[in-house]
Amino acid sequence: MKEEEKEYTLTPISALAKSEMYLLGELMIGTEPDLVFELVPDRTKEVSVNEENFASFTIGAINIYSNDRQVTNTFEINTAFLLMRYGDWDCSEPTGIMDNGELESVRFTFSPKEYDNFNMQGFDFIATLSSLVTEIFNEQTVYDSEIKSIDMRINSRLFPINIPDEYKGEALPLWRISPQPNYEFVESKNMGK
Fold this sequence. Notes:
By secondary structure, the protein is an alpha+beta fold. The chain has one domain (2-186). The protein has helices spanning 12-17, 74-86, 116-121, 129-141, 187-190, and strands at residues 2-3, 8-9, 28-31, 35-41, 48-49, 55-56, 59-66, 69-71, 90-91, 95-99, 102-111, 124-128, 142-143, 146-147, 175-177. The strands form 5 sheets. Strands 4, 7, 8, 9, 10 and 11 form a 6-stranded antiparallel sheet that branches. A hairpin with a 2-residue loop joins strand 7 and strand 8 (69-71). It is elongated, with a radius of gyration of 21 Å. The mean pLDDT is 86.
């Protein structure tokens, strides 16, 4: 922080290096791309695809995949859904998976903008815990850029953002990083290293 004549200033870079969000439980969350949300038609009901490629079907099952592994654990399904819904990765247009002219499923693929981090370290960051909470809160309280409510009427069990310390992951590996502040950080000395 720089002391000016009548105020203190802090640059965004310095603020990030000195952030105390860890005191509130802040985490950077990473996983393996891609995350896939798949809708599977109910085969006991009509499934149709017309000439304009407009599909009509009743959802029979929903599958979630992490790096081509099907996610079946309830905690992992809920966590993957939250990461897809409120995380920072891009969502593809829906992709119809066809087999012999029949619609097998519709997939939405969530991916990082680039795969450099994944190729280098085996995972990429999808969100911070605070950004997930903010997105969920805003969805419940803001409409058309206007505040419509100052609180959320939501059951805390439906807000499962708590990742247990002992979590290892079956199909959804998670990397949790808790950045600690560096109060001695000096921008000019610590940049570009």
